[in-house]
Amino acid sequence: MKKPMFTIAILFLLTLLCSCIFSPAETTVPTAPEAIAPDSLRVLAVDTLDGDLPGGVGAPIIYEDEEQVIFYTGYGLFAYSLIERNMIFTIDHVKAFGIDGSVQGEDATYADATPDGKKIVFYSTLPGRTHDAYYIDLETMTWKTGEFQELDAKFDRDAAKGVVIPGGTIQTTRYMLDGKTWDVFAEYCD
């Protein structure tokens, strides 16, 4: 009679030991790094900008409201939060088109936004390119490429009240509106 009790006691102890070792409260599951969707704007984001690079010849504003300004330079497309004083998103020209950009001339890059600033087309006029435009959806923060087509309606650039003034270098580029100034590339040039 002692043998079955001994067996039951051993089984009980093994069960208790296993439940302690494999308890869900004690178990940690390693998490994978956050996956970035291939159409996320983060895929095309500017990684760094050398603050000593030339500021360029211009930075056309394609959208502006009381919270943000969207503009482009030869380095890429940028949306800056006037409230948070940081970039909302960036698109690196080299990542997008494979070469440095220009805001003027025959082989320049251009961008336009819808009147509400939620859709953008960012395009290059380089000859021989079939997928030369990025169609950006700011509500989903995604993009797709395709042949260039004009937006049905565009933000009136002449209605922009502020101005992006390229300085002698990237770090001195400023957005100015109603006597206020924002250093738009400060987070890249620290």
Number of strands: 11
Order of helices and strands: HEEEEHEEEEEEE
**Which strand order does the major sheet show?**
1-2-3-4
Number of helices: 2
Write down the oligomeric state. single chain
- End-to-end separation in angstroms reads 80 Å
Helix/strand/pairing category = alpha+beta
Mean pLDDT: 81
Q: Any idea what the radius of gyration is? A: 27 Å
- Helix proportion: 10-25%
What is the beta-strand fraction?
25-35%
Number of domains: 1
Q: Main β-sheet: number of strands, strand sense, barrel status?
A: 4 strands, antiparallel
Spatial shape = globular
Report low-confidence residues grouped into runs of 5 or more. 20-33
Description:
The chain is an alpha+beta fold and 190 residues long. The protein has one domain (41-188). The chain contains 2 helices and 11 strands. It has helices at residues 2-21, 93-97; strands at 61-64, 68-73, 76-81, 86-92, 109-113, 119-124, 133-137, 142-146, 163-165, 174-177, 180-183. It has a 4-stranded antiparallel sheet. It has a 4-stranded antiparallel sheet with strand order 5-6-7-8, with no helix packed on it. The longest helix has 20 residues, at 2-21. The radius of gyration is 27 Å and the shape is globular.
Q: Quick gist of this model?
A:
This protein has 2 helices and 11 strands.
What tags apply to this protein structure?
190 residues; alpha+beta; 4-stranded antiparallel β-sheet; 11 strands; globular
